[in-house]
Amino acid sequence: MAKAVANVARRINETMEEGRDWLDLSDCDLISFPDGVFKMLRSCTDNIHKITLANNQLKALSNKFFHTFSQLRDLDVQGNILTSLPDAVGDMEHLISINLSKNRLAVFPEHLTCVKSLQNINVEGNQITGDMSRNHILYNSIVQTRNCIYSPSCETSTLFYLCKEHCSHHLCTSVSHAPTVDYTSLDIANGG
User: Fold this and answer.
1) What was the pLDDT predicted at 114?
2) Rounded to an integer, what distance in angstroms lies between the CA atom of residue 148 and that of residue 161?
3) Phi first, then psi: what are they for 150, rounded to 5°?
4) What's the pTM value of the predicted model, to 2 decimals?
5) Which residue(s) pair with 150 in the sheet?
C-alpha cells in the first residue's frame, strides 16, 4: 500500500514540477480518485488537459473530479470497474476524447451526448445493451452522419467515434423515432 501511495505522489510531483499538462495515474491500484490529488494540484488544475487513470480499480468518478479538471480535453479510464459517470461530465466544455473501454457500463453515459466538443468516445468491452433510443443517443446525429460508418458486421464492438466536423450537435434532445440498434453489433468509426 505504501508503495502505491508513494507512486501516486511521485507522479503528481513530476506533473507539477515539470509543468506538464497531463497526469498519468494509470496502473496505480486506485479504487477512487484520491482527495489528496485535488489538494496537491489545486494551483494547476486548469493546466491539466489529459488525465490517464487506466488499469486501476476505479468504481466511480465524482462530480468534483469533472468540476476540478474543467479544462480536460482527454480522459482515459479504460480497464476500471466504472458502472456510470456523474452528471457533471455533461458540463465538460473542452473534452475531446474519452476512453471508457473495458469497464462495467450497462448503458451509454447519456450526459456525454451534451459535450459539444467531444469527438471520440470509446466504450468497447463494456456490457452496454439495449437500443439507441432507450440510451438517449440521436441515431441521425451519430450513425447517419457523413463520414461516419455504421457496420452491423462487428458482433462485439461498442466503439463510438463522434465526427465533430460532420455531426449536428443537437445531441441533448431525446428522439423517440430513433430505430432500435443493438449495441453489441454497432461500430461507428470515422471514415475519412
Assistant:
1) 87
2) 8
3) -100, 125
4) 0.72
5) 188
User: How would residue 29 be classed by pLDDT, with cut points 50, 70 and 90?
Assistant: very high
More confident residue, 172 or 20: 20
| Spatial CA neighbour of 122 closest among 172, 160, 87 | 160
Domains and their CATH numbers in the chain: 2-190 (3.80.10.10)
State the cell numbers at 119: 469527438
- Picking from 122, 102, 115, 123, the residue whose alpha carbon sits closest to that of residue 141 is 115
Sign, CA dihedral 115-120-126-129, equals: positive
Q: How many CA atoms lie within 13 A of 17 on its CB side?
A: 6
Of all helices (H) and strands (E), which one includes residue 10?
helix 2-17
Query: How many CB atoms sit inside 10 A of residue 145's CB?
Result: 21
33-66: pLDDT as tens digits:
999 899 999 999 999 999 999 999 999 999 999 9
pLDDT > 90 fraction of the chain, expressed in percent and rounded: 48
The cell for 128 is 452496454
Taking the C-alpha atoms of residue 147 and residue 131, their distance in angstroms, rounded to an integer, is: 22
Beta sheet of 97-99, edge-to-edge order: 22-24, 50-52, 74-76, 97-99, 120-122, 158-161, 186-190, 148-150
The grid coordinates listed for 126 are: 463494456
